[in-house]
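User: Now give one protein:

AI:
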Amino acid sequence: MRKHAYFFLAMIIMVLVLPLILSSFGTNLATEIFFMAVFALSLGLIMGYTGLVSLGHAAFFGTGAYTVALLGEHIGNTYVLLLAALVFSGLLALISGALFIRTTGGYFLMITLAFGQMLFAFAFKMKSWTGGADGMQISVSPDFGFGPITSTHGLYYLAGVGFLLCYLLLLLFVNSPIGKIVKGIMENETRMKALGYQTRNYKLIAYSLSGTLAGFGGALYAFINSFVSPDLMFWIFSGQALIMVIVGGVGTLLGPVVGVVFFIILQNYVSSYTERWQLIMGIIFVAFVLYGRGGIVQLVSSLWKKRPGKGEDANVAVENAKNKQIV
């Protein structure tokens, strides 16, 4: 756990220092990375720790964003808006999860896809409320009692602090007894049932937490971009998050974050050279699925273990063990 504490401290320092060395464009890009990392982390929780793959996770992200947009026309208190976004997205995850986690595998994937598309259609058709395909502007700015946050650096730190809080919460969750039980359920649900655990309840806890955090990411998006549209609930947006998690590495907290950084930076870089950037991104994704299982995090970890110094240390350890046996 001490290793995690040092790593988290390094992340705090990184968030504080980045605006000092990045350009205005780079700061805006980092802001996008932070709130998308919250979304990817929430999806990575159910993928890597419960084994549930969802294509409707954007529904919770959109719920959080629309909560800020709709209530923001009547309520200006940022704390109330954030709390409402957490409550509505969490309740939606709790109710839908109670139904969805009865299924597994492809059935779970399809029912979450249908659920997300249903909410997308609702937001698309209710033009008088949501603005339909045109979306809607958000009239309220984030204000935590120190004045409205509108500057580039202010919005950056809003997203950065939100990301750090979510990462810390998930770090505590996955290392808690409940988190370890959830992980055990994914690895062998039959054995966990034999030990007396109500596996469905634990999966529902993880799914509800995941949906709540996705709603928080949507609320950050709404505050930072001052605009929402039904596209936030479309299945393609869920698919992008899915790609980010897989490319970064499933089963780790760092993986989804790395996937977001890789995806967003590469997307911005490649799209500046060609309009067919989606084709290139698709090829890279297929390559990771076929040859890079475990994602970037696992790939870097494997290369680190195979570094020359590490290999020599391992050989020395083997020789010492042999000598002890001979003696």
Q: What stands out?
A: The chain has a mean pLDDT of 88. The longest helix spans residues 199-225. The chain has 15 helices and two strands.
